Amino acid sequence: MSDDSANLDRYQNLPFAVEVELGSVAVGLEHLLRLREGDLLRTDLPAGAPVSVTAGGVTVGAAELISVKEKAAARIVTAGPRGSDGRP
């Protein structure tokens, strides 16, 4: 086993935070303070469009949002780093 393989084996079970990013919205402080239950925050992302999957601040793929047993889930549709155009 190479040194690289030994190092990888040593760390492969460490937890790694993976984020599913729907998007971001810029709002003013006044709007933010008026937010109430039921209000909508609209993103530029079209409904049904793939969302970004990131790990360690790096985009590692794209996913579609689905429901599994009444819980939100992300089904991976592309895996691997993506370029600035969103393509793998």
How would you concisely characterize the structure shown here?
With 88 residues, this protein is α+β, with helices and mostly antiparallel strands. It is 17% helix and 33% strand.
Unreliable stretches: 84-88
Q: What is the name of the CATH architecture?
A: Roll
- Look at the helices and sheets and give the structural class: alpha+beta
CATH superfamily: SpoA-like
Order of helices and strands: HEHEEE
Fraction in beta strands: 25-35%
The figure for the number of domains is: 1
- What is the overall silhouette? elongated
Q: Number of helical segments?
A: 2
Features:
four-stranded antiparallel beta sheet, 17% helix
